[in-house]
């Protein structure tokens, strides 16, 4: 079914059924014959966070977005285990296969979408579905655990980085508390606290303004509760041959840049690009994100991906 939505671009709605029977809501934009870019949102967003990126990229690409399980127009799993990374990766692979059955897609993901996307492209059975991966503000949890362990040595710089990251990630422990985070979102206290910290772009604690937004906030807490502890305590060596581009916002609040850059050791083809802005650059600077993705797609489609040494120091 075709319609013109909030991006002002004509979209085609479709759905994808997950392995455990959920029906995920998806939309596609642009020329079906152009390279496909699959966008995966994070927490507490839904696919609407990609509005600006879609408007830009759909001019010369096919762009596909979907609401992950428990967010937007997609149903939530009945059990907490339904938010496990293995489930999210399988969902992503199914959407990619449905969106582009004849050629791999180019993956773009943000926040928890990036965490799940890392899990997907480092799974051999899924990696063939993806031509490239652009990650924004979301590391692989296994890579993050290895990074943390590498910094636990008697070096002032290493220990300072760990302390810095621990401070930035303190909200994760808060999200594991029973009922307290839910109370914070319902009352707006959580949104006010994070707004005081995040000065660039919509904050992670933006107060829910409607039922859909509130549902995103509450359901997505399970992502932290299901996945963080086991991955950080028992990390695996997750590698990928999919070309990877990490976009590191210059004013990222929730992670240090060296954590994001450390993924290079797990990738055959890796590049790090700085982007001026905060955690929500897909919303606040969609043109910059779209521009970097457009470059990545062009490189891969022409068969000349760059090496890790090509990581750029300048920020758009």
Name the CATH superfamily classification. Answer: Alpha/Beta hydrolase fold, catalytic domain
User: How many separate domains make up the residues?
Assistant: 1
Query: What string gives the helices and strands in order?
Result: EEEEHEHEHHEHHHHHHEHEHH
- SS-based class: alpha/beta
Mean pLDDT: 89
- The geometry reads as globular
Beta-strand content bin: 15-25%
Distance between the termini: 37 Å
Query: Based on the structure given, which CATH architecture is correct?
Result: 3-Layer(aba) Sandwich
The first-level CATH class name: Alpha Beta
Figure out the total of helices: 13
| Overall strand count | 9
For the report, how would you describe the main beta sheet?
A: 9 strands, mixed
Helix proportion: 40-55%
Taking Cα atoms only, what radius of gyration do you get, to the nearest Å? 18 Å
Low-pLDDT segments: 199-207, 307-313
Q: How do the strands line up in the largest sheet? A: 1-2-3-5-4-6-7-8-9
In CATH terms, what is the fold-level topology?
Rossmann fold
């Amino acid at each position: 079914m075709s319609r013109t939505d909030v991006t002002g671009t004509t979209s085609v709605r479709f759905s994808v059924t997950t392995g455990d029977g959920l029906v995920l809501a998806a939309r596609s934009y642009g020329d079906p014959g152009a390279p496909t870019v699959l966008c995966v949102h994070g927490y507490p967003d839904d696919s609407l966070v990609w509005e600006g990126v879609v408007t830009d990229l759909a001019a010369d690409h096919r762009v596909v977005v979907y609401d992950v399980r428990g967010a937007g127009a997609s149903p939530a799993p009945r059990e907490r285990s339904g938010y496990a990374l293995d489930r999210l990766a399988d969902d992503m692979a199914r959407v990619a296969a449905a969106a582009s059955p004849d050629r791999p897609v180019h993956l773009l993901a943000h926040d928890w979408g990036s965490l799940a996307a890392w899990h997907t492209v480092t799974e051999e059975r899924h990696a063939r579905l993806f031509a490239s991966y652009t990650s924004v503000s979301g590391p692989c949890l296994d890579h993050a655990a290895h990074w943390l362990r590498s910094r636990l040595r008697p070096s002032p710089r290493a220990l300072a980085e760990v302390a810095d990251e621990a401070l930035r990630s303190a909200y994760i422990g808060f999200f594991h508390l029973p009922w307290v985070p839910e109370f914070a979102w319902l009352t707006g206290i959580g949104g006010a606290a994070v707004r005081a910290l995040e000065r660039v772009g919509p904050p992670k604690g933006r107060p829910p303004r409607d039922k859909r937004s509130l549902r995103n906030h509450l359901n997505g807490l399970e992502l932290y509760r299901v996945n963080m502890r086991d991955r950080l305590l028992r990390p695996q060596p997750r590698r990928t041959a999919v070309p990877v581009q990490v976009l590191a916002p210059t004013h990222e609040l929730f992670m240090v840049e060296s954590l994001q850059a450390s993924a290079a050791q797990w990738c055959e083809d890796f590049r790090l690009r700085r982007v001026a802005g905060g955690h929500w650059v897909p919303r606040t600077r969609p043109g910059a994100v779209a521009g970097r993705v457009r470059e990545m797609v062009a490189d891969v489609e022409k068969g000349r991906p760059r090496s890790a040494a090509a990581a750029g120091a300048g920020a758009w």
